Amino acid sequence: MESVLQTLGALPWWAYILLFLALLAFRDIFLQRAHTITHNFPIVGHLRYWLESIGPEMRQYFVANNREELPFNRIERGWIYASAKKENNYEGFGTDRDIYAHQHIFVKNAMIGYQLPSNHINQKDPYFLPCAKVIGAYNKRKKPFRPASVINVSAMSFGSLSAAAVESMNHGVRLSGAYHNTGEGGLSPYHKKGGDVVFHFGTGYFGVRTPDGNFSLEKMKQLVAENPSIKAIEIKLSQGAKPGKGGVLPGAKITKEIAEIRHVEMGKDVLSPATHKAFRNIPELLQLIESIAEATGLPVGIKGAIGKLDQWQELADLMKETGKGPDFITVDGGEGGTGAAPPSFADHVSLPWTYGFSSLYRLFLERGLTERIVFIGSGKLGFPAKAAMAFAMGVDVINVAREAMMSIGCIQAQICHTNRCPAGVATQSKWLQSGINVPLKSERLAQYFKSFRKEFLEITHAAGYEHPCQFTMEDIQVNVDDDYLSSDLKSVYGYQKTAVPFTSLNELYNCIHLGGKHQ
User: Fold this and answer.
1) 182 touches 200 (CB < 8 A)
2) What is the CATH number of domain 105-518?
3) Which listed residue, of 36, 133, 275, 437, carries a Cα 20 to 30 Å from 175's Cα?
């Protein structure tokens, strides 16, 4: 044995490398049969797999151009990062976009733009931009709510996101006057940092469920009574990432904290079915909405990705017939979002946001219902020009998910589903999320929202309006085909949105239902 050790000790350093490679080759050829490439090409095969594993990073940093990547290109990410850090988010020497490309957005500017009066609220607060509608006003809910920001955090659960990320976002919405949608994972302690909250639940009824997994109205009442920061309740019918698909939370991932928040047992798999138990059809959905609103006093809405319209038509007809219905509807784009999903769902199931929203809005418009509903758009709308298009189509508020994640450090690594998020945002790893400086990231989310609202106001003023709710479909043009022809949204989608009653931003500032830090 001693002679063996002496022999090994006498070997040069490169001999150890050769010995390791020889052992690896022996393993690849004689011991493993799972990978054909490494069996047939030992050593070199491992290099191939390693290069494949770092391919996304190589393309992101060295190969792709500024406008090439999806879901968000480098220019879009850079604008969010710069806005969040209060850095220069301008671009010089003209645009590098192909402005003749299909679906490129053009905002028509006025010959003379809107000029702020000396006593205008935006002279004092250039970031003030609330929703022009009051959620729950039409249905006379006991506690109507006017969001103090037209941009807010979309539904993302604690569990999908880290504790540090959720806490950063809630502090951030408090600082910016926005609201924070909890996602379907329940109301965690990290959602209770002072920001307005929209409580969201899906088929798992996490946080408001009975021991056997059914919805509990009593627990909902108790939750709302104990948490005055909850301003509205959202029922998830489907989401853009995987509409119509349920999920399983493995028992191994259920910590004591998650079990307490979601009202589930530790160590046992928890099923989120594809469909709800609390209702089986549209009349029962309407009844559930009214029951929750009556019990809590809060506005109640629904969220869905749009596909077939027959059940939406049934809902609209019932709303017209009964005078009841959801106070708001969140339309999620089929482009997918923060939820992990099979590619077949993320790529193909449900319509992209512009197609889905326009179809749904037109359906409610034909029945004279659009004034009753606050429409919320969610689908890569966290950029002022895209938001202008959305408001022209009938949106009243937008929710952002991935844009909010990027504002607190997400680098679009696209491994949210692996629990290995390098930025600590979409992981439960204590080590990875320890890199998130909560006070700093909170400020960055708030600054992104403020920068967005300021630039959105500037575009609105350039178009001759005081508030983006005044945009009409003739104010926005898009390129519609490959022959370099553009057309306004009214011609493209075949409707004109209902004008939103609006007097002035000063009047909205004094609204008794205004949320955020203004309340």
Assistant:
1) yes
2) 3.20.20.70
3) 133
**Calpha distance 312→517 (Å, rounded):** 35
Q: What are phi and psi of 19, to 5 degrees?
A: -65, -45
CB 225 within 8 Å of CB 300: no
Structure tokens at 240: 């853009």
Domain boundaries, the chain: 2-53, 105-518
Q: Quick check: 358 and 495 in contact, CB under 8 A?
A: yes
The reported pLDDT for the residue numbered 427 is 87
Distances from the Cα of 95 to the Cαs of 66, 75, 98, 289, 292, in angstroms?
11, 11, 8, 47, 49
Token couple for 61: 């940093």
| Rounded Cα gap, residues 150 and 161, in angstroms | 23
Pick from 191, 233, 243: which is nearest to 379 by CA?
Answer: 243
Token code pair at residue 479:
């390129």
Rounded-to-integer distance, Cα 421 and Cα 419, Å: 6
Q: What is the DSSP string of 337-367?
A: -SS---HHHHHHSS--HHHHHHHHHHHHHHT
Instruction: Give how far Cα 351 sits from Cα of 55, 308, 485, Å.
Output: 30, 9, 24
Q: Are 130 and 146 in contact (CB under 8 A)?
A: yes
**467: phi then psi, degrees, rounded to nearest 5:** -130, 145
What separation in angstroms does the CA of 253 have from each of 158, 245, 268, 483? 12, 20, 9, 53
C-beta of residue 239 within 8 angstroms of C-beta of residue 332: yes
Pairing of strands 328-332, 300-305: parallel
pLDDT confidence tier of residue 340, bands split at 50, 70 and 90: low
Closest CA to 301 of 145, 495, 129: 145
Strand partners, 197: 180, 230
Check whether 333 has a pLDDT greater than 90: no
Helix H or strand E encompassing 328: strand 328-332
Residue 150 has pLDDT above 70, yes or no: yes
Q: State which amino acid sits at residue 84.
A: A
The letter for the amino acid at 237 is L
Cα R_g (the chain), whole angstroms: 26
Confidence of residue 484 (pLDDT cuts 50, 70, 90): low
Q: What are phi and psi of 354, to 5 degrees?
A: -65, -40
Q: How far apart are CA 519 and CA 510, in angstroms?
A: 9
Q: By percentage, how much of the chain surpasses pLDDT 70?
A: 94
Task: Give whole-number Cα distances, 183 to 180, 186, 204, 346, 470, in Å.
Answer: 9, 7, 12, 18, 30
Q: Regarding predicted confidence, which is higher, 150 or 97?
A: 150
Residue 506 phi/psi, 5-degree rounding, is -60, -40
Nearest Cα residue to 477 out of 99, 209, 135: 99
Paired residues of 249 in beta bridges:
270
Question: Looking at per-residue confidence, does 217 or 18 come out higher?
Answer: 217
Residue 513 to residue 502: CA distance in whole angstroms: 15
